[in-house]
Design goal:
single chain, 257 residues, 5-stranded mixed sheet, 2 domains, alpha/beta, globular, Nucleotidyltransferase, domain 5, 14% strand, 11 helices
Length: 257
């Protein structure tokens, strides 16, 4: 069943130097842009991460340091990536937890603004885990009756993710065929900052999800322990998390004026 779209959606996948959102870098990005009329366009970039790709990681996705040494870094292609996903919703496999936060870091590191305020995000893995609890290869086999050839190739994984979502919509009558529902259904927690350090509570209040202030509102900590806020800004947290915290503090200050 074709997904119903009111605007384009970009399915994407990253291959990276590792799984640390703050420190690791993209080595390949593939985007499949699907339009409301079902037309598609795709683009794949190899990226020089400007840090070493560990050999154990290269064994997984097949991309070595030698393959990317003459490729552009993310800052050189960032504007092209941003242009392709501009005014689009986003979809991926484990994308809410990993791909989108890491992409946001690369954008901000390249001084390219990135904000999810008007973007719906569909995480096909979360839908899959809620329904069947398996991996992308198993999902592809289960839903599409195909073997995933070239797994851990960003282009193959991106296309498989798109096909799995269409098959999921076809299979489960409880899945509404619209991006808003699928975005909400595929979200584990209502995160404020992508990486999940700040989440909305049941009253829609931004709260910390970790550490000694877990469950406490950001506003409360800003008022009562401003040093904690400063510690986060000066520590190894994702840049997007710091951006959101700064925005929340500025909003609070503006509301007092």
């Amino acid at each position: 069943m074709k997904i119903k779209l009111s605007k384009p959606i970009c399915f994407f996948d990253l291959e990276t130097t590792g799984i640390n959102i703050s420190k690791d870098r993209i080595v390949e990005i593939s985007i499949l842009k699907v339009y409301p009329n079902s037309n598609k366009e795709s683009r794949t970039w190899l990226v020089n991460p400007e840090i070493s790709i560990p050999s154990e990681v290269s064994k997984i996705h097949g991309i070595t340091n030698e393959m990317v040494i003459n490729e552009p870094n993310f800052k050189e292609i960032g504007s092209q990536v941003k242009e392709m996903i501009n005014n689009c919703d986003l979809g991926g496999f484990n994308s809410n937890k990993f791909d989108i936060p890491l992409l946001a870091e690369e954008f901000l590191r390249s001084n390219i603004d990135f904000d999810l305020e008007k973007i719906k995000c569909i995480d096909v893995q979360n839908i899959f885990h809620k329904m069947e609890k398996r991996t992308l290869g198993a999902a592809y086999k289960f839903y599409c009756k195909k073997d995933l050839i070239d797994a851990h190739s960003s282009k193959a994984d991106t296309l498989a993710t798109y096909e799995v979502l269409e098959a999921q919509i076809e299979k489960y009558s409880e899945l509404e065929n619209n991006v808003t529902f699928l975005s909400e259904f595929s979200s584990r927690n209502r995160t404020v900052d992508l990486a999940g350090f700040i989440i909305y509570d049941q009253n829609n209040v931004p709260c910390f999800s970790f550490g000694k202030h877990k469950g406490k509102s950001v506003d409360f900590i800003i008022d009562n322990e401003p040093g904690y806020f400063g510690w986060i800004l000066n520590s190894d947290f994702p840049m997007y998390t710091k951006k959101i915290l700064t925005k929340l503090r500025l909003n609070k200050l503006n509301n007092k004026l």
